[in-house]
Amino acid sequence: MRPLKIGIGLAVAGLAMLVAGGVLLNVAQGVAVAEGLKAEVGNAIEFQAEDVTYTLVLLRADAFNADAMDRAVAAITCTVQFADGTSATVDGSSQFSADSTDAGSSIGTFDAVAGPATVVCSASRTSELIANVYAVAKERTTLLYTSYGLMAAGLLVAGIAVWLIIIGARGRTVFDT
Question: Which of 29, 37, 103, 153 has the fewest CB atoms within 10 Å, measured from its CB?
């Protein structure tokens, strides 16, 4: 088979994996927003925590202002108080990468201690967003890591596809059938 045909097929497969990964990421964050407890930034959320990882998401109310959303997330710091007296701090500006979808943007995650917990998120500057609401929910790690894996695999397959398309466009045969 000609590398050009294989490359085109792999390009389609890589693109499909990237799209599927993006959709799964959107679903994971959408579930967190839908299932999560919500409050205005500055107000507390009290909940019964389990021994799992939780995610904090700033809800997207203004779909057309990604820069304002990024600035709002960077200005947010959340403090979580656990039943055993310990606490955790989640700083939106210290994330390696924030997941931003139609549902919202991640502020960060924390590992909870089972029992009553209280989260309070505050902003270091005034938000430019229409609504300044955050949510806390259990992190869907399987769904999240599957989406990351699909996107990474899609990029790898797309890279191989580009290589094969270039070889095929030059008219060289690499594979004999």
Answer: 37
H helical segments located in 36-131: 66-74
For strand 87-91 and strand 44-49, is the pairing parallel, antiparallel, or unpaired?
Answer: unpaired
Alpha carbon distance 95, 91 (integer Å):
7
Find all residues with CB under 8 Å of 172, minimum gap 6, and list them: 3
> Which residues partner with 116 through β-bridges?
48
Residue 138 bridge partners (DSSP): 54
- Per-residue pLDDT tens for 55-97? 899 887 766 677 888 888 889 999 999 999 999 999 988 766 5
Element holding 133 (H helix, E strand): strand 133-138
pLDDT tens-digit readout, 91-139: 988 766 566 666 788 899 999 999 999 999 999 887 777 678 899 988 8
Tokens of 11: 């390009």
User: Do residues 165 and 6 touch, judged by C-beta distance below 8 A?
Assistant: no
Alpha-carbon span 21 to 150, nearest angstrom: 5
- Beta-bridged to residue 135, according to DSSP, are 38, 57
Say how far apart CA 56 and CA 54 lie, in whole Å.
7
